[in-house]
Design a protein that fits this description.
mainly beta; two-stranded antiparallel sheet; about 60% strand
Length: about 250
Amino acid sequence: QINGFRKNPELRPDVHYNFINPKIGLTYLASHQNHAESKAYVSLAIANKEPNRDDFEASNQHLPRPETLYDGELGYQYHALKWEMGVNLYYMAYHDQLILTGQINDVGSYTRFNVPESYRTGLEWTASYKPIPAVTLHANATLSRNKIKDFSEYIDDYDKGGQIVNHYAKTDIAFSPGFISYGGADLEPFYGKWTRQQFFIHVAGKYVSRQFLDNTANKNRSIQPFAVADLRFNYTLKMKRIKELGVS
């Protein structure tokens, strides 16, 4: 409930939302030889979210609708003494997702609009391996599709005034890379030799595929695929009067 504000005293929405967000799942646990364990699971969930305050403040010409998400997941995890692995398949269907389209309201402010149907689906993979107590290797990757089934883009027409409308089918959701991968190693060279001190070396690499800056899947408005390498050293010392002193 908003009783107007300084820039728009006429904005007085009075809306009521009654959400039921159920989740149902089934998990199967199994024990194997050599103290290994595995878990298989499936779940279905529904989540609802009301629009933000900003959506109401900028929506002079329309009343934003709440978002609804239907999420289905299927996965498997395996844990052994020295290694573990997991895979997760998901499908997230959105109804009335709120996104920026470029459309402006009657005072020229950009506002989010509901798109009827959009979805995210993909496969997530995680793994780690500990060959010796002083070394841990870990990696993960996500392969996904993130689409809006029907999208209308609004572009300001500076020559004739107004806005130009372009329609797209099954276009990519902005800032949603289709592939992300990560790999790293944690090393403790003095493991078992020090009692009140610890020294870690962390090495990691990450790759992110192309991300679009808007919902038109236009390469001219995108972030190029990139990779990042990270090297970090961490030293900690435990003392009597100070619980822990660390330098990284």
